[in-house]
Amino acid sequence: MALVRWFVWLIYILVALGLTAFGLYFGFENATAVSPKILGYSLPEINLGFWLVAFLILGLLIGMLLGLVNMFATRTRIRSLSNQLDKAQQELRLVRQQRLGDS
């Protein structure tokens, strides 16, 4: 099991290094300076590769935050359903005990 974990970490590290190398290459190949405008506000003039990577990271972070909101809502729903199930099982045990006592 430890070997599998080690192998998975090795793959993660290799993928991270590959993506970092790709990002550096991408940044150097897109060295044209641009000044994007967002809602009428002009951002500083920096190379295109930086802006593309920066907005990609921003989009990933926003997506992760939205995923966290969904995850917490799902956990709350699961906890609520688990409590309902526990109550129903307790009631079922009580009914079975009463029924056995009546016999």
From TrEMBL:
<feature type="transmembrane region" description="Helical">
    <location>
        <begin position="7"/>
        <end position="28"/>
    </location>
</feature>
<feature type="transmembrane region" description="Helical">
    <location>
        <begin position="48"/>
        <end position="73"/>
    </location>
</feature>
<dbReference type="Pfam" id="PF06305">
    <property type="entry name" value="LapA_dom"/>
</dbReference>
<feature type="coiled-coil region">
    <location>
        <begin position="71"/>
        <end position="98"/>
    </location>
</feature>
<keyword id="KW-0175">Coiled coil</keyword>
<protein>
    <recommendedName>
        <fullName>Lipopolysaccharide assembly protein A domain-containing protein</fullName>
    </recommendedName>
</protein>
<dbReference type="InterPro" id="IPR010445">
    <property type="entry name" value="LapA_dom"/>
</dbReference>
<feature type="domain" description="Lipopolysaccharide assembly protein A">
    <location>
        <begin position="30"/>
        <end position="92"/>
    </location>
</feature>
<keyword id="KW-1133">Transmembrane helix</keyword>
<keyword id="KW-0812">Transmembrane</keyword>
<keyword id="KW-1003">Cell membrane</keyword>
<keyword id="KW-0472">Membrane</keyword>
